[in-house]
Amino acid sequence: MNKREKLKHILSSAGLKATVQRLIILDALSDNYNHPTAENIYKKIKKEYPSISLSTVYNTLEIFRKHGLVRIVNTDSVTVRYDPVTDKHHHLFLEDSSKIEDYYNNELDKLLNKFFSKNKIPNFEINDLQVQIKGKYNKLQTN
Amino acid sequence: MNKREKLKHILSSAGLKATVQRLIILDALSDNYNHPTAENIYKKIKKEYPSISLSTVYNTLEIFRKHGLVRIVNTDSVTVRYDPVTDKHHHLFLEDSSKIEDYYNNELDKLLNKFFSKNKIPNFEINDLQVQIKGKYNKLQTN
DNA sequence: ATTCTAAATAATAATTATTACGAGATAATA
DNA sequence: TATTATCTCGTAATAATTATTATTTAGAAT
Predict the structure, then answer these.
(1) B61-71: pLDDT as tens digits
(2) Which member of A80, A124, A128 has the closest CB to residue B137?
(3) Are residues B72 and B35 both part of a single domain?
């Protein structure tokens, strides 16, 4: 199964029609370059598919979100950032830039689950737990 | 020291001129009604101080933020929400509404600190750790 | 207490980000 | 290949925020 077939399969599995626009947007998302905005996606795919409309990008991202193909990253900014990675993970927010990196740690997840099963919030049902880690790389680091 | 004096002191301690507008905005914030937007604050204080300008509210909140009097809550929405509580805490995000509640737990903080001092992120200096807890209160709960 | 001045405010324009709308195009099924 | 519900494009409308600027003011210096 080639990439296009895979992408088609993702869409149909989510119960979505496989249109050219959706395939291209999904493809752009799968490149996963730092939690893009709608505008980021638009500019990126505009090159290979110039007739795409910005409103289609917005619209499609919202449809993807509703169908669980992307999530919105909680940020302090005015612009919505999307996350194509839907399995459990956390985020590093780099101060001094708007970069956001994924942080995976299974042990952390276990630790949190354990903590919250011991320390239940009265009458509250937890559906998602995410740690936001703010900070910065020291000088050594170049990315 | 009455409330007004206290508020004045907060401003001057932060190195800010104590203007009427700032005092009123700071006062409104201290009521802390569910992590307000700029618009929320504006509408609230407009009653007691009708000559206030929306731009002053935006401007003042940004100045407060720069001086550490408020923080922005990371959300998935387009509208910025402010948090007047500057000491360490976490957030409950209520699904099915836009309510955000504070969650304090010293043990959780210790647990996280311990975890991340054992599991350092290479070359990364953590400045803030926040847990975002998404979920909902079950039917019993009325608030 | 008055004067001075840098900073703050109000009003409004401009910009940015997103959503709404409707006419035409298209994917999926028969 | 015909049908039709859905999708896309282009643009208008709205929402949220930021920029601009003339006027006002808090607080320091007289």
Answers:
(1) 999 999 999 99
(2) A124
(3) yes
